């Protein structure tokens, strides 16, 4: 993308990259040298800048702290085998960020601002993009309300930022999930489809209860009856039953996942039967009991594919087939990795070269 915006740059005096063990990267704890910032004032994004990664200074009354007016995104950059930097489907993230922003009364970030900021930041911190198999640079764009005002109203001032961190895998092992039948992540008309900070905070307590029972995550169900499965923890959920890929249809309570869309697109391209529809708890439990549930997995940017090894429901644990036997999720993970590393053809135009 052509640089048409003025973004000032102040670089670090000394990079921290030598402190990082790229063969052993924990998820989300190590940040690259630089970050991007833009401030929204008087109806426009101003003071576009890249500067060393450092702590922020905020007014204690900043509305984001009290009322959670904040949205974010997650996407990844990779190095192809030939050393080229590539970002996976960034325009889809730019578009979803603005859908989330609209729901939270946050001003939109123009796509060209999102893309130029991202590209410039990645060029400066190019050395931070891992080239080991399975590793990547996780990119976290976010916008939050900055007004120094304790009353409730949409803020007049905002900050848009992008930080990045080299990451390894999000889950170190296949996950055990519990079907949630008391608490709710999202209700019709709420903010479930948005990547809004508060959605994640509200999910922490029920997830903690499940963790105390030995599960890693929850399978969220609909708010009204807890009858239909919606998402898996912080990811979209997918099942393979009798060789058909089944996933809850996108709606106001479900995040429109970009990894979800990529998986569904590849499955259809391979001629697999795909159903995007309501998925009832009863259907999944029955399929787990009679052995037709061949696979269950979460799909999201951070984890890509998170295999589910066990589903808990009403005090009973259902163990699913061995991970090595799962044809589809293993194949799709491999196919996505091959596209991202430039080893196989980018048939759908998902890679954005920097
Ligand atoms: C992602 O998958 O990118 C997310 O935003 C989930 C978060 C828990 C890391």
From TrEMBL:
Gene3D superfamilies with a match to the protein in the record: 3.30.470.10, D-amino Acid Aminotransferase, subunit A, domain 2
Reaction(s) catalysed (UniProt annotation): L-leucine + 2-oxoglutarate = 4-methyl-2-oxopentanoate + L-glutamate; L-isoleucine + 2-oxoglutarate = (S)-3-methyl-2-oxopentanoate + L-glutamate; L-valine + 2-oxoglutarate = 3-methyl-2-oxobutanoate + L-glutamate
Protein name, as recorded: branched-chain-amino-acid transaminase
EC nos: 2.6.1.42
Biological role: Acts on leucine, isoleucine and valine.
Involved pathway(s): Amino-acid biosynthesis; L-valine biosynthesis; L-valine from pyruvate: step 4/4; Amino-acid biosynthesis; L-leucine biosynthesis; L-leucine from 3-methyl-2-oxobutanoate: step 4/4; Amino-acid biosynthesis; L-isoleucine biosynthesis; L-isoleucine from 2-oxobutanoate: step 4/4
A Pfam family that the UniProt record links to this protein: Aminotran_4
GO MF: branched-chain-amino-acid transaminase activity
Domain of life: Bacteria
Necessary cofactors: pyridoxal 5'-phosphate
Keywords per UniProt: Amino-acid biosynthesis, Aminotransferase, Branched-chain amino acid biosynthesis, Pyridoxal phosphate, Transferase
Any GO BP: amino acid biosynthetic process
């Amino acid at each position: 993308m052509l640089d048409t915006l003025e973004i000032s740059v102040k670089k670090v005096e000394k990079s921290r990259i030598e402190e990082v063990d790229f063969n052993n990267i924990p998820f989300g704890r190590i940040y690259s040298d630089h970050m991007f910032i833009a401030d929204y004032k008087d109806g426009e994004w101003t003071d576009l800048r890249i500067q060393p990664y450092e702590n922020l200074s905020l007014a204690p009354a900043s509305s984001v702290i009290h009322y959670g007016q904040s949205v974010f995104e997650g996407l990844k950059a990779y190095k192809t085998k030939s050393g080229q930097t590539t970002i996976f489907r960034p325009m889809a993230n730019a578009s979803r960020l603005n859908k989330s922003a609209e729901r939270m009364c946050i001003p939109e970030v123009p796509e060209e601002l999102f893309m130029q900021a991202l590209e410039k930041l990645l060029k400066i911190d190019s050395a931070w993009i891992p080239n080991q198999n399975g590793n990547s640079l996780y990119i976290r764009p976010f916008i939050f309300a900055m007004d120094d005002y304790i009353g409730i109203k949409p803020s007049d001032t905002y900050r848009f930022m992008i930080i990045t961190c080299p990451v390894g895998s999000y889950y170190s092992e296949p996950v055990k999930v519990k079907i949630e039948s008391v608490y709710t992540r999202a209700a019709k008309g709420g903010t479930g489809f948005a990547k809004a900070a508060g959605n994640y905070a509200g999910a922490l307590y029920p997830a903690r209860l499940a963790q105390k029972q030995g599960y890693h995550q929850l399978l969220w169900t609909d708010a009204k009856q807890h009858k239909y499965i919606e998402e898996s923890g912080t990811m979209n959920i997918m099942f393979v039953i009798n060789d058909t890929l089944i996933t809850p249809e996108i709606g106001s309570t479900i995040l429109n996942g970009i990894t979800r869309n990529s998986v569904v697109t590849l499955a259809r391209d391979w001629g697999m039967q795909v159903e995007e529809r309501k998925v009832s708890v009863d259907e999944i439990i029955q399929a787990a009991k009679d052995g037709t549930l061949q696979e269950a997995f979460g799909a999201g940017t951070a984890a890509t594919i998170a295999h589910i090894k066990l589903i808990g429901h009403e005090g009973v644990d259902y163990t699913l087939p061995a991970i090595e036997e799962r044809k589809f999720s293993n194949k799709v993970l491999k196919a996505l990795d091959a596209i991202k590393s430039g080893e196989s053809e980018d048939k759908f135009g998902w890679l954005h070269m920097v």
